[in-house]
Each structure stands twice: as C-alpha cells, then as structure tokens.
Amino acid sequence: MSEEEAPNLALSLAELRRLVEVGFERTNGSTALILQRLDQVDDRHNELAKRVEQDRAAADARYVALEARLDVVEREAVTRTQLTERTRQIIAVVTVLVAVAGAVIALIQLTRG
Questions:
Q1: Counting runs of H as helices and runs of E as strands, what totals does the chain give?
Q2: Fewest C-beta atoms under 10 Å: which of 37, 42, 43, 76?
Q3: What is the pTM (predicted TM-score) of this model?
C-alpha cells in the first residue's frame, strides 16, 4: 500500500462507517415507528374488545327481557281454539236467550188473546 492510498482508504472507511451509522439510525427509527404503531393497534384492539363485550352483555340482557315477555304472552294469549270455543259458547247463550224471549213473547200473546 502506498502513502497516497492510505488517506483515501481512511476516508473511504470513514465514509463507510458514516453510511453504516445512518443505516442503523434509519433502521432504529423505523423500528421505533413500528413499535409505536403496534402499541396504537393494541390499544385500539383493547377498546374494541371492551366494546364488543359491552354490546354482548347488552344483547344478552335484551334477550332475557324478550324471553320473559314471550313467556308472558304465551301464558296469557288466547289461542285460535280457545277463541273458537268461546264464540260457540256465546252463540249458544244467545240462541238460548232468543229462544226464551220467543217463548215469553208467545206466552204473553197466548194469555192476552
């Protein structure tokens, strides 16, 4: 190695060292940015998980309330069969009342005439 190449070699090594340091700093910066974004993603995930759990609890509460309402409706609701039977009973009672009224009117007319 000659005396002229030594300063060039030292200068090249210094330039190489600077490039390597700049590359490491860029890598460190990118890594820090990625870690920061991962932290943000983790926070957002935790918020969404809490929200989902709250929504699930609210949905479960609504489900229980609706089940209770449905049970009440099923106990108190009049079925078609029951409605038909009531209608038959009412028709039978009205028929008996009309027959009794007819008999009373016939008796009244017989006693007068």
A1: 2, 0
A2: 76
A3: 0.50
pLDDT in tens, 1-59: 566 677 788 888 999 999 999 999 999 999 999 999 999 999 999 999 999 999 999 99
Residue pair 1/9 in contact (Cβ under 8 Å)? The answer is yes
| pLDDT (0 to 100) of residue 67 | 96
How far is the C-alpha of 86 from the C-alpha of 95, rounded, in Å? 14
Q: Which two tokens stand for residue 44?
A: 């957002």
Amino acid at 27: T
Which residues neighbour 9 within 8 Å (Cβ) at sequence distance 6 or greater? Answer: 1
Angle at 73 between CA 69 and CA 77, to 5 degrees: 175
Question: What's the chain's length in residues?
Answer: 113
Please give the distance of CA 75 from its chain centroid, rounded to a whole number: 28
Percentage helix, strand, coil, to 5, in the chain? 95, 0, 5
Phi then psi for residue 59, to 5 deg, are -65, -40
